Amino acid sequence: MNITIIGAGNVGYHLATAFQQTDHHLLQIFSRNPKRFAHFPPILAKKCVSDWTSINPKSDVYIIAVNDQAIEEVSQKLKKTQVNGIVVHTSGATSTEVLRQHEQFGIFYPLQTFSLAKTVNWQAVPFCIDGNSQTVRNQLFQLAQQLSPTVHLITDKQRQALHVAAVFVNNFTNHLLTLGEEICQEFDVPFGILQPLIRETFEKVQSISPKIAQTGPAIRGDKTTIEKHLKLLQNHPDRQLLYHLISESIAK
Ligand SMILES: NC(=O)c1ccc[n+]([C@@H]2O[C@H](COP(=O)([O-])OP(=O)(O)OC[C@H]3O[C@@H](n4cnc5c(N)ncnc54)[C@H](OP(=O)(O)O)[C@@H]3O)[C@@H](O)[C@H]2O)c1
C-alpha cells in the first residue's frame, strides 16, 4: 500500500519511521510547518512536503495525525486535493464523522503514549481500528498488523470511552508523578528513592486488579494521617484539593 501521513508531530513522525521499515510504501509526509522536518533522517526528509498542492492523490491510505481540533479542517483540505484513498485519523477522542466527506474513511488509533524523544516499541502498541465498510476495516486491520500484533476493532463510542480511561491511567498518573517529584524537590529528597515504589505500583496491576491493589491512608480510613498530609501541603492549595478529591474517591 502507498501511505501518506499528514502531521509531523509525535504520532506522525513515529508512524512514518515505522512504515518506512515495512513492506508498505511511505509516499509522503505532510506538515504545514517545514521546521518540523529539521530532525528527520534523510530517508524521511526526502518524502516531506509542506504545501497542500504537493499532496499526491494516488495514495491508498492518508493518515491524519494532527491536533484533534484540526482533524476536520485537514480532512476538508485533503478532500479538495482530490484524494480517493482511505482517510483515517489517529485520535482517541474524535468521532469518525469528521471524515464523512470521504468515500472510504476510518480510525487508526494507536493506544500508547508517544513522544518525539522516545523510541517506540510497536510490539507494545495496541491499535484500535474501524472503518465505514467491511473492505476498509479489513484493509486497516491488515495495515495495523504490519506494525503491531495487537489490533482491535473498536466502535466510536468504545474508543472514546477507552480514551477517557487512558487519560486517567496515563496522563493523570503522570501528572501525579510530576507532583511527587516537585514535593521531593521542595523537601530536598531525591525523587529516585520513589522509583521502586513507582515500578511496583505499575507491575502489581499486571497481575491483580487496581481496586484490590489499593493501599494508603484513604482506603484504611486513617484520618489523622490524611490531616497531617493536608497540613504539609498547606502552601499549595491546588495540591491539597487534588489530595482531598482523590482520597474521597478512594474512600468511596
Ligand atoms: N502523542 C500521543 O501520545 C498520542 C497517542 C495516540 C493518539 N494521538 C493522537 O494523534 C494526533 C496527533 O497527536 P501528536 O501528539 O502527534 O500531536 P503533536 O505532536 O502536537 O503534532 C500535531 C501536528 O499537527 C499539526 N497541525 C496542527 N494543526 C494543524 C492544522 N490546522 N493544519 C495542519 N497541521 C496541523 C502540527 O503542525 P505545526 O507544527 O505546524 O503546529 C503538528 O505537526 C492527535 O489526534 C492525538 O489525539 C496522540
Tell me what you see in this structure.
- With 252 residues, the chain is an alpha/beta fold.
- The protein folds into 2 domains: 2-154, Rossmann fold; 159-251, ProC-like, C-terminal domain (N-(1-d-carboxylethyl)-l-norvaline Dehydrogenase, domain 2, Orthogonal Bundle).
- The chain is 44% helix and 14% strand.
- Helix 9 runs antiparallel to helix 10.
- The termini are far apart.
- The structure holds NADP nicotinamide-adenine-dinucleotide phosphate.
- The site of NADP nicotinamide-adenine-dinucleotide phosphate has 23 residues, from helix 1 and helix 3.
Write the layout of secondary structure elements.
Layout: E1 2-6, H1 10-20, E2 25-30, H2 42-45, E3 48-49, E4 61-64, H3 71-80, E5 86-89, E6 105-110, E7 127-131, H4 134-145, E8 151-153, H5 156-186, H6 195-204, H7 210-213, H8 217-220, H9 223-232, H10 237-251
Parallel strand pairs: 1-2, 1-4, 2-3, 4-5, 5-6, 7-8
Antiparallel strand pairs: 6-7
The chain binds NADP nicotinamide-adenine-dinucleotide phosphate.
